[in-house]
Design goal:
binds guanosine-5'-diphosphate; alpha+beta; 384 residues; binds manganese (II) ion; seven-stranded antiparallel sheet; six-stranded mixed sheet
Length: 384
């Protein structure tokens, strides 16, 4: 269940009328300075990365002068998170913090409930708090997608000492989050910290949100999320555009399967034969020659590839189509033509005779049994 960036989460919160500090998303220290002048100092410089705990890792810094904005931005933009360079910063108006609360909710799919966690001791690492002081975290369960009103949360908040407008505001925020879980197809929504400022304002300072990608058809704008871009490698993005299921795995053998189940079995067999898959690439049932060619084009862009194994079972997919795609790719791409990246093919199923004929005419050996093909691909990778 993928996380989205703080800036994206905060845009969602704004849509539901939550109270947030003004902020501007930037990509350079110069833009950061301009943003800080627009917002007014002090500002907080916040790295937009997918993993949490940024405060502890030096990825969030308070800046009181334009010089500090530039310096902190340069520092943070030179850092890495999740194996990637930081590329985006959220420049946010600084808040005068009096108290930090914690609100988190998840969908409990076993009971079909939304589980809400609340604590007045936010800001800190909540896992630590849960371990050392579980009594300081309240748990509320309500039916997922069911009716709810802010007053339903008020007795819990009152028990923790919240009164007046603060109690009402926090209860409303919880209620909005519960609504968002359903309407926005979220699997996690967390605000840590939810801040009470010295002037008594309730401000959402952080947003940690996971979306259910299976519901992205209801939220087409999420395709363009920066988090979507950060999550995927160049090859994964390219594959997505061509409707191919592709995941980088980091081994040595490029694996192309027709059918995802067969792909998983192939990955296991590669391991049993002493190799390791460099990727998972499934062209899906019913793929034509063009799709197979695209799949090979994407796969060979990866410099670490040592050999390629194509494992195709023709059900609704016609193997003459698969073979035509393989030959087209071999003729088009230099590293396949020269044999720099050895290609091992195994075909079985619909139109296998025609498929093998097409490959043989082009000088490509085709296996019909799985094991010898996998053995050959592993051996070719070791030699390479
Ligand atoms: P996380 O560490 O990735 O969860 O990032 P947060 O957005 O939660 O920020 C971490 C901590 O930085 C917060 O708990 C605050 O204590 C502090 N912080 C964030 N924004 C501000 C701000 O506007 N003013 C001040 N004084 N502190 C802030
Ligand atoms: Mn946080």
């Amino acid at each position: 269940m993928p996380l989205i960036l703080e800036a994206e989460g905060k845009d969602l919160f704004r849509k539901y009328g939550m109270n947030l500090s003004e902020s501007i998303l930037v990509k350079s220290a110069e833009e950061a300075k301009e943003a800080s002048l627009k917002l007014g100092l002090p500002v907080v410089v916040k790295a937009q990365v997918l993993s949490g705990g940024r405060g502890k890792r030096g990825l969030i810094k308070l800046a009181k002068t334009p010089e500090e904005v530039i310096q902190h931005s340069i520092d943070i933009l030179s850092m890495q998170s999740d194996g990637r360079q930081v590329t985006h910063l959220l420049i946010e108006e600084g808040a005068d913090i009096a108290d930090e609360y914690f609100i988190s909710m998840v969908v409990d799919s076993a009971t079909l409930e939304t589980l809400i966690l609340f604590s007045i001791e936010g800001g800190v690492d909540i896992e630590t708090l849960a371990k050392e002081h579980p009594d300081k975290i309240d748990r509320i369960r309500i039916p997922y997608g069911g009716d709810h009103q802010p007053f339903m949360f008020m007795s819990t908040l009152a028990k923790r000492g919240l009164t007046g407008n603060i109690k009402i505001s926090v209860a409303k925020i919880i209620s909005i989050l519960v609504t968002m879980m359903k309407e926005e197809d979220l699997t996690l929504a967390e605000i840590n910290p939810l801040v009470i400022t010295k002037s008594g304002e309730v401000v959402v300072l952080d947003a940690r949100i996971m979306i259910d990608e299976n519901a992205n058809y209801r939220h087409p704008e999420r395709e363009d999320y920066l988090s979507e871009d950060l999550r995927n490698t160049e090859n994964e993005k390219d594959a997505k555009k061509h409707d191919l299921a592709y995941v980088d795995l980091g081994g040595e053998i490029g694996m192309l399967s027709v059918g995802a189940g067969l792909g998983m079995a192939t990955a296991d067999l590669i391991a049993i034969f002493g190799g390791s898959p460099r990727n998972f690439l499934d062209v899906g049932g019913g793929a034509g020659a063009d799709k197979v060619e695209q799949a090979l084009r994407i796969m060979i862009k990866d410099a670490g590839l040592k050999s390629i194994l194509i494992n195709a079972f023709g059900g609704i997919t016609k193997l003459d189509e698969v073979a035509t795609g393989i030959v087209a790719a071999r003729d088009k791409f230099e590293q396949l033509k020269t044999g720099e990246t050895p290609l091992v093919v195994r075909l079985m199923g619909t139109n296998v005779t025609e498929g093998i004929q097409i490959l043989e005419n082009a000088g490509i050996k085709a296996y019909t049994e799985m094991e010898p093909a996998i053995e050959a691909a592993v051996a070719a990778a070791k030699r390479n």
